[in-house]
Amino acid sequence: MPNTCKSKECTSGASLITTFMVIGRLLCISGLLTFLTVSEDAFAQSTVVEQLPPTGDDTEQDERIVEVRIEGNETVEISKLPQLNTRAGQIFDPQAIEEDVRTLHRTRKFIDVLPKYVRVRQGVVVVFTVVERPTLRYVKFVGNQHVTTRTLRKKSEIDVGDSIDSYVVEEARRRLESYYHEKGYDAARVTTVEGTKPGDKGAVFLVDEGRSRKSFWTTFVGNSIASDARLLTQIKSKPGFFWFLGGDVDHEKIDADVDTLTAYYRSLGFFQARVGREVQVLHGLGRDWALLTFVINEGPRYKVRNVSFIGNSRFKGEFLERDLKLKSGEFFHQDHMDLDLGLIRDIYGGRGFVFADIQADPRFLEEPGELDLVYKVAEGQRYRVGKINVRIGGENPHTRHSVILNRLSLRPGDILDIRKLRSDERRIASSGLFLNEPARGEGPRIVFSKPDPSEQLIAREPNQKGFRGQSPDDGDAILDLVLKGELAPLPSDQESADTSREPAPRIKNSGGPVEIREQHQWRGQSPAYGYQPPATTTPAPATSPPPYRQSIPQQPVPARPATIPSPSTAQNPNVAAWGGSAIAATSPDAIDYGRIPPASPTATPMVAQQPVAQSQTPPAGPSGYAQSGFGQPGFSDPSGFNPLPNVPGMGQPGLPPQGFAQPPLQPFPGNEPYVVVDVNAEETQTGRLMIGAGVNSNAGLVGNIVIDEQNFDITRLPTSWDDIRNGTAFRGAGQRFRLEAAPGTELQRYTATFQEPYLFDTRVGLSTSASYFTRYFFDWAEGRVGGRVGLGYQFVFAPDLSVNTGFRGESVDIFNPRVQGIPDIQGNLNTPGGTNPGMLGKNSVYGFSGGLIHDTRDSPFLP
């Protein structure tokens, strides 16, 4: 049996042990709670928050960024870094922070960028921890004697402060070596001493320049078709000016010259020509001189045996071959073939086949020295001009679209002519109103493209008025009325209608709002015949079920298949011009204005919110557009395109009643496709203000103030200060205004000139000017007040050809003679043979002028 202790000492010892155990447990629990509290506080201060703060009105303060830090940068200054999108005070945006990370990476100054989002009591602290890339502390060039260090530093494109990257340093070495070779140091070598190894703090380049080499003479051997002087114009490796300016020897240029000479000979028909080179080096005058010789083996010259065409069906081969320069029996010439290829393309492009693919295919024969020239033609379809879009760019575009449209020789509906488009582009560039820098490839451009499938008809919206222009200006506000109501049946109508048809409800006004919509206005050109609704007195059979309720009773008639109207049916007064039945004339007493008759068997019941067609006279369409044809209600469309979309609850579109929206225009007779023409131009500086002064012994002191505006608009008055500040006031119509004032001590001249090249958007031009002139001579003074008026006209068949006529009138006043009594000045009535009025007083001068101008310049200053 186990021993048991029942004494007081055992009991007190057990109690003491229990007490210590309890105290130990309490201490452990207290320490654990303290550790958790400290850990929680530390976690709240330093733990990265990987998710967005909670959103809500009560946490808006936490979502804001209170501070943005960049840590880890030791040598890179924060002021030299690009500006970040994330700033203090903004709402926390993870996408903006990601963009800032990419921005810092693009500087190539950091190896890694790590963003951190720290939650604090005031909001969010954004920290960008960066790891810097080692930077170049120095860049040195050793061994350069003939090239300055500044030039080498510029050509290497590397500098102090850039990141140390072995690839960047190697690329800089390659640039330096290539530059030396271009300067004629063919033996130059550049090596990298420092900058490619880990731990390097800079870049050091060792340059071995060697001796410079220049071209002393260039000769040709084996050339018979072209002289040495002609071949020298084709190459770049030739002696410099006086053998010192230029003429550096570069092997890459020599290889390129070999290819150039080979291509030149093959363009002349020497398809088996071979070109080699030989370089001899002479030493003298502290440099190497190269004697360059091109050895040419011309071979046989090929002759054209036959010229033929494949794929041409619109034009005969004899017609296409009539004006060709490269014909059968002549030696092949690449330039002549290119000219002929352009001529054939102009023949097709000038007649609407603008997408014709024409390629020249020289075919070599078994007989040496002969070939057949075959032109492959893929004609395609003929296209007409459709919609013309004008896009004018600039800081504050203010030029009217009519300024460009007036200079176009093509109108919607015309057959597209590529030659006229080139002339129109040149005419727009020569106006001086738009940016025109051919050397930089900037200038007005006219391009055309096939229309979008959703825009198969130019006159897609028939509710818009036409204008001599195309591109829409500001949209017009059009009221779109939505009527809500119910139809009530008539007792008499129910008896005559089908018993299975439900009665039509009565219309009740629901007080619906009037909806205003913004619609762009389509402006046509070259208006065709305007639409006139037919005047009919008797009903005619309908070709399609009308979707609109008619205001008079009509007996239902069976529908018949849609057909295109013939001229005889179009003249029939009982048939509507756009298809369907005409509305019979009825006296006002026979109409019940409060009721609507029942619908025909083929009609669809009217529903609430059903759009009502707007009442508007149809616009005059462009020339070449018919007012009726396929794609209209009541006619079958062979292309499957329906210009009028179906309205829910109305079924297939049918005949609109008189006074409602009319059917759209037919694209072109014969279903010819069209292209969309885009005219792109950018405004340039058109206004000038010149102030000057001068003094000379003849006219004394003369000042000069000139205000000249080439894009003036006399009707555009300023409506606010912004119109004057952004240059919109009195500008934009293509008019020309010049005001000149030349005050002086001996001479005064004031003139004002106004020119309108297209008066009222026509081909008639107007020019006016007024002047005031005063000159103080030694013996008398002269004053002139007058003006000029001129008219011009541009011919339609030749827009570059114009005629003009003008009238000049002046009042000349001679006054203030220095010496009185001189007969030639004051006159003498007692002279033999008549009277001598003299010069004193006022006299009138009149004159007329006329001229014929043919202007084909592409620039008024540098044609």
Which ranges are low-confidence, i.e. pLDDT below 50, for 5 or more consecutive residues?
Answer: 1-14, 34-62, 456-484, 487-667
Distance between the termini: 131 Å
In this structure, how is the largest beta sheet organized?
Answer: 8 strands, antiparallel
Spatial order of the strands forming the largest sheet: 18-19-20-21-22-23-24-25
User: What shape does the CA trace take?
Assistant: extended
Overall pLDDT score: 74
Helical content band: 10-25%
Please state the structural category.
alpha+beta
**Strand content of the residues, in percent?**
25-35%
Number of strands: 25
Radius of gyration: 45 Å
Number of helices: 15
Task: Walk me through what this model shows.
The chain is built from 15 helices and 25 strands. A hairpin with a 7-residue loop joins β21 (747-756) and β22. Among the domains are: 57-132, Ubiquitin-like (UB roll) (Roll); 139-208, Ubiquitin-like (UB roll), CATH 3.10.20.310; 213-297, Ubiquitin-like (UB roll) (Roll); 303-378, Roll (Ubiquitin-like (UB roll)); 682-854, no CATH class. The protein is extended, with a radius of gyration of 45 Å. It has helices at residues 8-46, 60-63, 94-106, 149-156, 166-182, 228-232, 251-267, 317-321, 334-349, 401-405, 418-430, 491-496, 567-570, 721-725, 823-826; strands at residues 65-71, 110-119, 124-132, 139-142, 189-194, 203-208, 213-221, 274-284, 287-297, 303-310, 357-364, 370-378, 384-393, 445-449, 476-480, 515-519, 674-682, 687-696, 700-712, 735-742, 747-756, 764-776, 781-794, 801-815, 841-854. 19% of the residues lie in helices and 27% in strands. Mean pLDDT is 74; it is low at 1-14, 34-62, 456-484 and 487-667. With 863 residues, it is an alpha+beta fold.
